């Protein structure tokens, strides 16, 4: 029998520290770069731990909400253990050695201090491969590149920021990870530089870029040659400089997937414009060329071209934060996003044609940005269960979803 228990959502605006319109898709408090508790900030939340409520109940026999992944009320107790009262996204990928890394967006700690211990993004790690009873994150250990989080000896219970930002509204308010992949022992995160938040679901970006880590996510360095400037002009620049072409706007947010079968040996990057209202496009490259945008090829609707001006959409608008993977269980590529509810598409080839969306979760559970977990049986071919991180608006935290796929 289906179990459903939730409140009707209001406007789709995230509420870190209990402040509506202060998270992903809206505005954020100003904080000087690197600050842990200074800056003007917005008004303090009602408690240090933020607004996280009880886990919403949903189980229709096929899809279910399983547990909180983050937040003070999660089994991982991320406020006490990592200084995380609220965060979102949880983009997940295999680090190439069987460990799952997860990149989160704007992250908040103590809601009663000025600035709320805001970090632009953080990384957590898990060795948990059985998600049927939830997702477990081990403690962070200073200097241990496989521990649950990157922490310092002076603050072992405070997850450190991954990728910095200026932190100035109207210039660069934050940097948000949108996709990640491991290649030959290195970790690559594609992120967007957000200039300003607008109405819910709308924001402006300066550029997207790739940051690289050679130490399993402890430290990150942006490769300047991978910057795609979001501007309606074309500017010829020397090799190694940022790319400035109008169609770079279509790759401000991303998802990565490795090709299978006839597409083996390629990595595919799905791109969408800034915000939650654009279409999806796809590029491909050889793994060794991930940092060389000149080696990318773009789907034109009938073939692949090195000319980004020829790119054509593979999924029509609106496409929100998107996650793409190969499902060994289905023998197809799968794509999930959440423009209204959480839904799934499938395709035999990365460029499609993609199926019509299939409903997984209703809009009433009030989540966004479903991100598939690589240890899911449906992806590994050991069962029908697909597990996803998803972010909840009002609680501004990440929960674990499960849906059983049908062949």
Radius of gyration: 20 Å
For the terminal residues, how far apart are their CA atoms? 23 Å
Q: Biggest sheet, open or closed, and with what strands and sense?
A: 6 strands, antiparallel
Q: What CATH architecture do you see? A: 5 Propeller
Return the CATH class.
Mainly Beta
Classify the helix fraction into a percent range: under 10%
Task: Provide the β-strand percentage band.
Answer: 25-35%
What's the structural domain tally?
1
The CATH topology annotation reads as Tachylectin-2, Chain A
Q: What is the β-strand count?
A: 24
Overall 3D geometry? globular
Instruction: Report the order of strands and helices.
Output: EEEHEEEEEEEEEEEEEEEEEEEHEE
Structure annotation, total helices: 2
Structural class: mainly beta
């Amino acid at each position: 029998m289906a179990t459903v228990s939730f409140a009707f959502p209001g406007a789709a605006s995230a509420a870190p520290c209990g402040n509506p319109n202060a998270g992903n898709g809206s505005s954020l408090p100003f904080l000087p770069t690197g600050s842990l508790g200074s800056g003007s900030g917005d008004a303090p939340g009602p408690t240090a731990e933020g607004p996280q409520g009880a886990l919403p109940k949903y189980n229709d026999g096929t899809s279910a909400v399983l547990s909180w992944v983050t937040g003070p009320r999660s089994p991982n107790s991320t406020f006490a253990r990592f200084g995380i009262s609220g965060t979102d996204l949880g983009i997940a990928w295999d680090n190439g050695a069987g460990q799952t890394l997860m990149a989160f967006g704007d992250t908040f700690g103590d809601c009663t201090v000025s600035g709320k211990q805001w970090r632009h993004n953080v990384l957590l790690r898990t060795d948990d491969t059985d998600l049927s009873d939830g997702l477990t994150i081990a403690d962070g250990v200073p200097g241990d590149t496989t521990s649950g989080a990157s922490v310092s000896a002076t603050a072992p219970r405070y997850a450190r920021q991954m990728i910095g930002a200026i932190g100035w509204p109207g210039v660069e308010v934050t940097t948000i990870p949108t996709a990640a992949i491991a290649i030959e022992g290195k970790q690559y995160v594609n992120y967007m530089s957000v200039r300003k938040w607008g109405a819910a679901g709308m924001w402006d970006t300066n550029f997207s870029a790739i940051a690289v880590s050679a130490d399993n996510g402890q430290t990150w360095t942006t490769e300047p040659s991978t910057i795609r400037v979001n501007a309606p002009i074309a500017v010829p620049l020397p090799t190694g400089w940022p790319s400035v072409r109008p169609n770079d706007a279509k790759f401000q947010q991303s998802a990565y997937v490795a090709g299978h079968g006839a597409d083996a040996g390629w990595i595919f990057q799905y791109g969408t414009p800034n915000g939650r209202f654009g279409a999806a496009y796809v590029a491909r490259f050889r793994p060794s060329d991930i940092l060389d945008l000149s080696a990318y090829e773009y789907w034109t609707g009938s073939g692949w071209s090195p000319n980004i001006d020829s790119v054509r959409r593979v999924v029509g608008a609106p496409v929100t934060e998107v996650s793409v993977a190969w499902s060994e269980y289905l023998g197809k590529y799968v794509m999930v996003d959440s423009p209204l509810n959480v839904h799934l598409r499938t395709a035999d080839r990365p460029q499609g044609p993609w199926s019509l969306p299939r409903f997984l979760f209703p809009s009433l559970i009030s989540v966004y940005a479903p991100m598939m977990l690589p240890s899911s049986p449906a992806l590994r071919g050991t069962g029908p269960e697909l597990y996803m991180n998803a972010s909840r608006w009002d609680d501004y935290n990440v929960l674990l979803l499960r849906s059983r796929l049908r062949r």
